Amino acid sequence: MATVVGSVSFIVGQAYAIKADGTQRILMLGDEVYADEVIRTAADSQVEISMTNGESIALEGGQSWLVSAETYTSAEDYPVDEAVLSDDVASVEAIQQAILEGQDPTLIAEEAAAGNTGDAGPGGNEGSTFELIERTAAEGDPEAGYETIGLAQTQPEIIRETGLFNRAAADTVDTAVVSMTGPGSVVEGETTTDYTVSISQAPTEDLLVTFNYTATDADGSDYTAVNSVTILAGETTATFTIDTLDDALAEGDESFTVSIGSVGTGGLEDVRISPAENAVTTTIVDEPTAGPEDTALISITGAQTIIEGETSGNYTVSVDQLAADVTRPITVELIYSGTAEDGTDFTGVAQVIIPAGSNSVDFSIDTLDDVLAEGSEDFTITLGTITDSNFENIAADASANSV
């Protein structure tokens, strides 16, 4: 099983670990690296390996490094007291003394012990001998003038020049945040003041920002939505306004929310929507005084002649608003005048009601036949008191308030 010698503690760009058989894997933060792998970085990339012995190795773009378990084995892994025999120590001391006396240790040292002669194997080999060498990791300062170095090596200090590589800067480079501000209120029928979309870093290309709308009471008939704006290359803001639509409905204050739906990249590496400033809620305030544009008009039409004793054709009382906007009934009083008398010559209808969900109502008049030679008679129906709670203001249409 491969020996783990460290792990990836930092990486920017791409780096690879290549095994002896040529297979490679892309390294990610936290990945382990193994002995005998080659670590290679792509151009403009950096990787840092934290070794199991506490040291670190940093590679810049285009560099390679062969991982070796031997190089990074600590001396603590080889306890001296278990590996070195007293006879071995004595032999070492004798050789050191001989060197001090000017003798050649290769001539006076005891020959290596020979192993048993092995049987000849296939191909005529006569066997072999070997010596078992214990690795002790011991260190000392012999008088021969050369210092011995144990297996625990201290890696040279890694020098990083200021400005060559900055981890904090690498984490935030080319990241831009898009936010939005705007008015809290607008009077119904007027245009809002500016909504401003801002980006913390100017894009190198035009950047498109789209919007979503939600409403508590307002809907598409209360304002004209703006669906997107473009922040031009080199700029950091874009503005837009929203037109509100005046109507005759007695709605009270209404509100809608415009929020950032999506953003482009504008040539930047990373563009994000601000989590705190990504939407504006605007209240549409009803005008304190209703004007002509806020007034719903009631009118009446109907038959011009009736034969005595018969029932008239339909008379129609209407309001000049959408049926869907009539959410509560409208009551209209009818007033009669003329030579014909209500109750004697005809049976009048005192009032009519325009029902909710409709913008008109029909009614008819029954005339009464008698034996009197009266000649032609006439009567006029005029709109009287109107009772309504749907609209800001309601009145009889001056050009069609009687028939």
From TrEMBL:
Identify the residues that the record assigns to the LapA adhesin domain, covering every copy: 174-286
One GO cellular component from the entry? membrane
A biological-process GO annotation: cell communication
Instruction: Pinpoint the Calx-beta domain residues.
Output: 309-389
In terms of InterPro entries, this protein maps to: CalX-like_sf, Calx_beta, LapA-like_RM, LapA_adhesin_dom
Pfam families in alphabetical order = Calx-beta, LapA
UniProt keywords, alphabetically: Calcium, Repeat, Signal
Domain of life, per lineage: Bacteria
Q: Which SUPFAM superfamilies match?
A: CalX-like (SSF141072)
Query: Do you know which NCBIfam families this protein is assigned to?
Result: retention_LapA (NF033682)
- Mind telling me what this protein is named? Calx-beta domain-containing protein
Q: Which organism is it from?
A: Neptunomonas qingdaonensis
